[in-house]
Design brief:
Elements: E1 4-8, H1 12-25, E2 29-33, H2 36-42, E3 50-54, H3 62-70, E4 77-82, H4 86-94, E5 99-103, H5 107-126, E6 133-136, E7 139-142, E8 147-150, E9 153-155, H6 159-170, H7 178-186, H8 193-206, E10 216-219, E11 223-226
Parallel strand pairs: 1-2, 1-3, 3-4, 4-5
Antiparallel strand pairs: 6-7, 7-8, 8-9, 10-11
Length: about 230
């Protein structure tokens, strides 16, 4: 079954190019919204596999749309930002975007990132339930349905937050610098603050006291590691 992508952008020429490349050349099913309100009306957490979301939109901007989508779904979101808007990129990650591309972007790079996301989600969904539940102290991580519970309470993580947590868990005790985490989890070289933002958001969700973390630890001057003790 073809993956379905929701493209949200108010520039018809951009939409036309994206649609041609992703629908005609890659075989994805495409839905389109030209403003923030329309995006929220169209978005279906049961139908859409990924959202390409422009930052600058009429009616509701990309930040607001991202935040509202993230409140009901952890579908992967790639945010499209204008060149040089570093703070907007960081804010987008804060609101729950998984990745970003700066306009004008390379279509081959966009396709590669989309394929990487789908390859990862397909790998998890293909796994059997047995043997794919990890319990660490009061945390339960289900690799099959990509869910996390702490003390029996569901924790809503974005796709990238879940990937980051799983990578830490599978390599518990090993210290990773930001460059390595960016390459492994995001599959590209970019702004190292992307890692810091996701670490902070992840701590806010899984730690009792984010200022004194018990799971995701910092080794000053080196990087981050996962503590299962």
């Amino acid at each position: 079954m073809a993956k379905r992508i929701l493209i949200v952008d108010d520039e018809p020429i951009v939409v036309k190019g994206l649609r041609f490349n992703l629908e005609q050349q890659e075989g994805y099913e495409i839905d389109v919204a030209y403003d923030g309100e329309q995006a929220l009306e169209i978005f279906d957490p049961e139908k859409h596999d990924l959202v390409l979301l422009d930052l600058m939109l009429p009616k509701l901007d990309g930040m607001e749309v991202c935040q509202r989508i993230r409140s009901i779904s952890y579908v992967p979101i790639i945010m499209l930002t204008a060149k040089g808007d570093e703070m907007d990129k960081i804010m987008g990650l804060e609101f729950g975007a998984d990745d970003y591309l700066t306009k004008p972007f390379n279509m081959l790079e966009l396709k590669a990132r989309i394929k990487t996301i789908f390859r990862r989600t397909d790998t998890y969904s293909a796994k059997k339930e047995d043997g794919n539940v990890i319990t660490i102290r009061n945390m339960t991580v289900n690799l099959t349905n990509r869910s996390v519970e702490i003390d029996g309470n569901y924790i809503n993580l974005t796709a990238k937050e879940f990937d980051l947590l799983c990578y830490f868990i599978k390599n518990k005790g090993k210290v990773f610098d930001r460059e390595t985490l960016l390459e492994v989890v995001w599959k590209h070289v970019g702004d190292l603050r992307t890692v810091d933002v996701h670490i902070r958001r992840l701590r806010e969700k899984i730690e009792k006291n984010p200022a004194k973390p018990e799971f995701i630890m910092t080794k000053w001057g080196v990087g981050y590691y996962f503590n299962d003790k």
